[in-house]
From TrEMBL:
Membrane-crossing segments per the record: 43-61, 105-125
Keywords from the named record: Membrane, Transmembrane, Transmembrane helix
Protein name (Swiss-Prot/TrEMBL): Protein fam8a1
InterPro entries xref list: FAM8A1 (IPR039871), RDD (IPR010432)
Organism (species): Crenichthys baileyi
Any single Pfam family the record assigns to this protein: RDD
Keyword Transmembrane: yes
Length: 146
């Protein structure tokens, strides 16, 4: 059983790692090796986030915990028609497949990482859909009864 001192050491090592590779400013003294390590950490983080989002959207009822708490979920969407203000009829509105969930998560996370906050595109498309939702054939909707 680890002692309190070894737990404190592990916590300190993680904090030191985060401070060194994420929080500290990159300057002219930063080595190429440090930059490569930072890129690897960022890439691993993005891959883990993609796996997490894919599993949540595909296998956990179409919602990450945040979407669930807000009463939202992601469903498939081939077509959407405005029925009345703030009401859209979505066809087929079924659960998202593994492939569509993966496409959505990859597009979302790597676009955010390398381009710009792509979620801003919801301001320009019908029914507040983002580019990654359109590409994946999905839409975020309010849960029924939620």
């Amino acid at each position: 059983m680890p002692s309190a001192n070894s737990t404190q050491t592990v916590t300190w090592d993680i904090a030191k790692f985060i401070t060194h590779f994420i929080i500290e400013e990159i300057d002219e003294n930063t080595s190429i090796e440090d930059l490569q390590k930072m890129m690897v950490v960022a890439l691993v983080y993005r891959v883990l986030v993609c796996v997490y989002e894919t599993i949540c959207i595909w296998g956990a009822g179409g919602a990450t915990p945040g979407k669930f708490l807000l009463g939202l979920r992601v469903v498939t969407c081939d077509t959407s028609t405005m029925v009345r203000p703030n009401r859209v009829f979505v066809v087929p509105a079924s659960n998202v497949s593994l492939s569509a969930s993966t496409v959505r998560a990859l597009n979302k996370n790597f676009s955010i990482a390398f381009l710009f906050p792509i979620f801003i595109t919801l301001l320009f498309f019908q029914h507040n859909r983002t580019v990654y939702d359109i590409v994946a054939g999905t839409i975020v909707v309010q849960r029924r009864g939620g």
